[in-house]
Amino acid sequence: MEKQHPNSLGAKYYICGLLNSNILGTSVMIRTAYAALLLALPMPALAHTDTMTVAQPHMAERAPLDTLPTADKFTKVVLYDNNTWEYIDCGRPVIEDTDFDTENWNTDRIHAYRDVPLALLPDEVDILLVDSLHPYHPPYVGDVTSRYCFRRTREHNGTDVRLKVGDPIFAAFDGRVRVSEGSSKTGGYGNLIVIRHANGLETYYGHLSEHAVQVGELVKAGEVIGYGGNTGRSTGPHLHFETRYQGQSFDPERIIDFGTGQLRDTMITLKKHYFSIYSHHGQTDEESLAASQRIVHRIKSGDTLSGLAVKYHTTVSKICKLNNMSPKATLRIGQRVTVR
Ligand SMILES: [Zn+2]
């Protein structure tokens, strides 16, 4: 399985210093901490000591016994045969600000990555969302009124959050405004802002009443980029928020809890199946993969639910459950129905 480095748009790696604790030579408190650490850490299969360990001259005689993971995937603990241990930073990626706004940069098209098909994306990619220099700010905190899903006839590629017209909308991460366009050119999005971020993502903010930033402008996380509205294909004031990687959308709720506004983690590993409209936050990866492999039938003249059930070796009730529809629902030509 192919795997790209975190932040494929330009992460760099560094090794930082070590935090030492000599168990025998220091206080009981540290020894207690050592014991607690051993109890608290999950014991994985024994791994060799990380090759990035930097030799400590005053402890040159010690030999590594084991390497243990910690809650932070970029920090490990190495245990030595003289009862000492140390934390090792094994290469923490950072977000770089260079070149994120050059490749596939297009200010005239809403979707800039038309030449990057899903097939060319890696099976999974780590995206570092924030680091010490690149913060996050919730785009808007509120009730989710519509999730990332396939609606009756079309894909809903983002998360809708209820708001009041005129409420400020914030840039989620640092970046550069790629699109700032009025309703006449964006179709259903209404007034739309798209921001390209140094962390490798793009975020979309739709149905705005007003724009507060221009195309090409650099914005910081938390900067007001526009005001909530009801423009475009919208049945009430809300923010339509999308997250995309290389043009492919994934459920924004995978990274943001809109009820609290909190980022769920500092990093997300995007699996290829996350880019399916049937894959969403809350599923296990197995469920997501299965959902991404669903078969969708486009209704043609003469189609009936019972006919589809026979054709796809399933039942009417299963089809109805998958599509949240009644067995007596009227099928319309062109409608897409998930059959498996
Ligand atoms: Zn929406």
Poorly predicted runs: 1-53
* Gyration radius, rounded: 25 Å
Helix percent reads 10-25%
Q: Report the top-level CATH class of the largest domain.
A: Mainly Beta
Mean pLDDT: 84
Which structural class is indicated by helix and strand composition?
alpha+beta
Q: What name does CATH use for the topology of the largest domain? A: Glucose Permease (Domain IIA)
The CATH level-2 architecture of the largest domain is identified as: Distorted Sandwich
- Per DSSP, the total helix count is 5
Bound compounds, each kind once, are: zinc ion
Total tally of structural domains: 3
Fourth-tier CATH superfamily name of the largest domain: Glucose Permease (Domain IIA)
Run of helices and strands? EEHEEEEEEEEEEHEEEEEEEEEEHEHHE
- Cα distance spanning the termini: 27 Å
Can you count the beta strands? 24
Largest sheet: 8 strands, antiparallel
Question: How do the strands and helices of this protein lay out in sequence?
Answer:
Blueprint: E1 3-4, E2 19-22, H1 28-40, E3 64-69, E4 75-80, E5 84-89, E6 124-128, E7 144-146, E8 149-150, E9 155-156, E10 159-162, E11 168-170, E12 175-181, H2 183-186, E13 191-197, E14 201-208, E15 210-211, E16 218-219, E17 224-227, E18 238-245, E19 248-250, E20 256-257, E21 262-263, E22 267-271, H3 285-292, E23 296-298, H4 305-311, H5 316-323, E24 336-338
Parallel strand pairs: 1-6
Antiparallel strand pairs: 2-5, 3-4, 4-5, 6-22, 7-10, 8-9, 10-18, 11-17, 12-13, 12-16, 13-14, 14-18, 15-17, 18-19, 20-21, 23-24
Zinc ion (ZN) binds next to loops.
